[in-house]
Design goal:
This protein has 527 residues and is of the alpha/beta class. The protein has three domains: 281 residues, FAD/NAD(P)-binding domain, CATH 3.50.50.60; 103 residues, Flavocytochrome C3, Chain A, domain 1, CATH 3.90.700; 83 residues, Up-down Bundle (Methane Monooxygenase Hydroxylase, Chain G, domain 1), CATH 1.20.58. Helix content is 35%, strand content 17%. The strands form four sheets. Strands 1, 2, 6, 7, 8, 9 and 16 form a seven-stranded mixed β-sheet that branches. The protein is globular and about 70 Å long. The structure holds flavin-adenine dinucleotide and succinic acid.
Length: 527
């Protein structure tokens, strides 16, 4: 019988991740449970914090739940689940109203009504936003509310390493305290994964560095099913910067009339789709990819300089200022853009209320795969899904807690004979290699040959990385690297299993869509 250790952290509910999913879930359950929320870095660092265009929901009289559902299902290209889409779409307005009550001040039009934006794949204006800084405002309102909730204890700089699962029941996790350089046991009745996406597996990404797929890797290692991992969504318009920091140029610009041109000034989207700049994201990303391959250029242009400068500055203050800091005045000049990895449509397979294959383990937000996005996510449906599922998962969590699940302490982390890592360069070198191989071989356009190369390479890297994992004392870099390699393998394996082109998975060897739409499911053997 193992008893609690002095540095063990005990809670009713352990939430891993402080983006929109983790924070809104924690707030919902905090009335009936003691919550510990751990997060890898500073509390605001998350994909959520960088979201620009907004949250899709039906508010306009010219819109309807049916229309939003149809757009979601059309975009999902045969793999989105209708009942899931229906619930998410119908619950959207109520969840957004709760954000208003927390103090998020969504942009209004001249008549004082919500100003609704539009993006690719939407047949109506329905994106509520706070100018082009939606994520920052939402994250900050949620963090303020958490800070004012005594039953939530938020710990920054704690990186979850592994879940502890016994007899298919989750007992909590091991997490690395990066300030004290030690591993602590987090013992909980219910554990919730809200660790976000996987963009950092790719050389070019809109995501911050935290997006290394940790939750997906932990859940897979622990024995859950992961679903549809081949569907990495590439955002068409990321600011082209040959060196250094870059950032997303929101699709909302195209919603408000921005035009894509090649470097000679030719508008090319009409060659690819009747919706031109407002075609779904995969079509625009592939069109840009094809234009770049044809011309040999490094970027295309996105141009909003034909619009009134005052309007551009007030509607897109974040993008205007950021581009200006790179020497680009978007009211006068076109913006050089390239596609970049943006969103993981797959993830840990869950029900709408977050249940995974493991008892007392829930997953929500970008880490989870509920079946909403199918083969391609409709723009601005991610924040929406996170809000709705966090709410539903809190309901499930409450019923699980009513069954009084026991707290089961577990053995402390064993470092064995591990020594300090002698050269950190092995971590950075391997991280770079994964990012490059994913970009070059598992990118926007795939082929059997490229995927086979990627699979061989990732297997070699995994052997090396697993060796470091046992030989060296744990660091954040090592935890992330091990997860990145595993998630890369899951993406490659899923892509190899899909012998068709559907949604955002495009294969040169299988350009047609199969008659039957099937999810790709992966589960570890011998758990
Ligand atoms: P995140 O917000 O990414 O939060 C994950 C959290 O988990 C972070 O706090 C992270 O530090 C923590 N974490 C990760 N691993 C660990 C670990 N091992 N241990 C402890 N903590 C960990 N979607 C829309 O719907 N509308 C938009 O306008 C939009 N714009 C976007 C713009 C950008 C630039 C990006 C990158 C994404 C955008 N998206 C948008 C997608 C959307 O922002 C994300 O899908 C959503 O925010 C995910 O929320 P989340 O809570 O699941 O994850
Ligand atoms: C954007 O602002 O273009 C991103 C929107 C999204 O990912 O949903």
């Amino acid at each position: 019988m193992i008893s609690l250790g002095s540095s063990d952290v005990v809670s009713d509910v352990l939430v891993i991740g402080s983006g929109i999913a983790g924070l809104s879930f924690a707030l919902k359950i905090a009335n009936s449970a003691q919550v510990v929320l751990i997060t890898k870095k500073e509390k605001a660092e998350s994909n959520t914090n960088y979201a620009q265009s907004g949250i899709a929901a039906v508010f306009s009289p010219s819109d309807s739940y049916e229309k939003h559902m149809k757009d979601t299902l059309d975009c999902g290209d045969g793999l989105s689940k209708k009942p899931v889409a229906e619930r998410v779409v119908r619950d959207g307005p109520a969840r957004i109203q709760e954000l208003v009550e927390l103090g998020v001040s969504f942009s209004k039009d001249a008549a004082g009504m919500l100003d609704l934006g539009i993006e690719g794949g939407h047949s109506r204006r329905r994106v509520v936003h706070v100018k082009d800084l939606t994520g920052k405002e939402v994250e900050s309102a949620l963090l303020d509310a958490v800070a004012n909730t005594p039953s939530i204890k938020l710990l920054e700089n704690h990186v979850a390493i592994n879940l502890v699962v016994e007899e298919n029941c989750c007992r909590g996790c091991y997490a690395f305290d990066t300030k004290k350089s030690g591993v602590r046991n987090f013992v909980s009745k219910i554990t919730v994964l809200a660790t976000g996406g996987i963009g950092s597996l790719y050389l070019h990404t809109t995501n911050p560095e935290i997006a290394t797929g940790d939750g997906i890797a932990m859940a897979y290692r622990a024995g859950t099913t992961v679903m549809n991992m081949e569907f990495t969504q590439f955002h068409p318009t990321y600011l082209y910067q040959p060196r250094g920091e870059s950032f997303l140029i929101s699709e909302a610009l195209r919603g408000e009339g921005a035009i894509l041109r090649d470097r000679a000034g030719r508008q090319f989207m009409a060659d690819y789709h009747p919706m031109k700049e407002l075609a779904a994201r995969d079509i625009v990303a592939r069109a840009i990819d094809q234009e770049l391959k044809r011309s040999g250029d490094n970027y295309v242009y996105l141009d909003i300089s034909q619009k009134d400068p005052q309007y551009v500055r007030s509607r897109f203050p974040g993008i205007y200022e950021k581009c200006l800091s790179f020497g680009i005045d978007i009211t006068k000049n076109p913006i050089p853009v390239v596609p970049a990895a943006h969103y993981c449509c797959g993830g840990v397979r869950t029900t709408l209320d977050g249940q995974t294959d493991i008892e007392n383990l829930l997953a929500i937000g970008e880490t989870a795969c509920t079946g909403l996005h199918g083969a391609n996510r409709l723009a601005s449906n991610s924040l929406l899904e996170a809000l709705v599922c966090a709410h539903l998962a809190a309901g499930r969590c409450q019923s699980l807690l009513e069954k009084e699940p026991p707290l089961r302490p577990f053995a402390p982390w064993e470092s064995g004979d591990a020594t300090d890592i002698d050269e950190n360069v092995v971590i950075t070198q391997n991280r770079d290699e994964i990012r490059r191989l994913m970009w070059n071989y598992v990118g926007i356009v795939r082929s059997n040959k490229r995927l086979t190369r990627a699979k061989k390479r990732i297997a070699l890297l995994q052997d090396e990385i697993n060796q470091y994992y046992w030989d060296f004392i744990i660091t954040t870099g090592l935890i992330e690297l091990r997860n990145m390699a595993l998630v890369a393998q899951l993406i490659i394996d899923s892509a190899m299993l899909r012998k068709e082109s559907r949604g955002i998975h495009y294969s040169l060897d299988y350009p047609q869509k199969s008659l039957i739409a099937q999810d790709t499911l992966l589960k570890k053997h011998n758990v």
